[in-house]
Amino acid sequence: MAVNSKKIAIYVLVVFVLYVIITDPAKAADYVQIAFEGISNAAGAIGDFMTWIADGAKN
């Protein structure tokens, strides 16, 4: 039952994404840009943290 629910949830998500892209491509592009900015910020924060650890966790 859980596998079927997961497949249904993924299908609904894909349909929703396609609907947004087809009905308003500009807004879909904005969403993609926001997502990539978030990923970039998260990667930068992880890099800063790893640098801090490598420096001996000094303030």
Any overview of this molecule?
This protein is mainly alpha-helical. Helix content is 88%, strand content 0%. The chain contains 2 helices and no strands.
Top keywords for this entry?
2 helices; 59 residues; elongated
- Global morphology: elongated
- What is the radius of gyration? 19 Å
- How much helix, percentage-wise, in residues? over 70%
Q: Output the number of helix runs.
A: 2
Helix-strand sequence: HH
What composes the largest sheet? none
Query: Percent of residues in beta strands?
Result: under 5%
List the uncertain runs: none
Number of β-strand runs: 0
What is the overall pLDDT average?
91
Structural class: mainly alpha
What layout of secondary structure does this protein have?
Elements: H1 2-23, H2 25-54
Offer a concise description of the structure.
The chain is an all-alpha fold.
